[in-house]
Amino acid sequence: MIEPFANDHQSMQIGDLIIENQKDKIIIYGDIDLMLSELGYKQAQQLHELSGKIIKAFEDENIYSSNEAKSKENNDQLDKNIDNPFL
Question: Residue 63 — pLDDT band, cuts 50, 70, 90?
Fold first, then answer.
């Protein structure tokens, strides 16, 4: 289990859902099918534990108000237009 917002190198996987940890954001992508089975139950428990840890990090450190500029600096999208190399 990752420690939310603690570092830039942790990641985890639940089903085909990928969770990447960064100091200023948590990136979640992929998908998961929670089947009515023992595996589905375990995956649901992991999701519940992870979401609880993320919420606790927000409540404990009030980090969402101090990292707005930092998140913009680390944004994967550029703020400028570039020429399309395929045209």
Answer: low
Task: Please tell me the distance from the alpha carbon of residue 16 to that of residue 30, in angstroms, as a whole number.
Answer: 6
HEC secondary structure over the chain: CCCCCCCCCCEEEECEEEEEECCCCEEEEEECCCCCCHHHHHHHHHHHHHHHHHHHHHHHHCHHHCCHHHHHHCCCCCCCCCCCCCC
pLDDT, tens digit (0-9, with 9 covering 90-100), for 24-46: 899 999 999 999 999 999 999 99
Read off the tokens for 33: 């099918």
Could you give the CA distance from residue 62 to residue 28 in angstroms, rounded to a whole number?
A: 21
Q: What is the pLDDT of residue 67?
A: 54
User: How far is the C-alpha of 87 from the C-alpha of 84, rounded, in Å?
Assistant: 6
Q: Which of 46, 53, 36, 54 is nearest to 15 (CA)?
A: 46
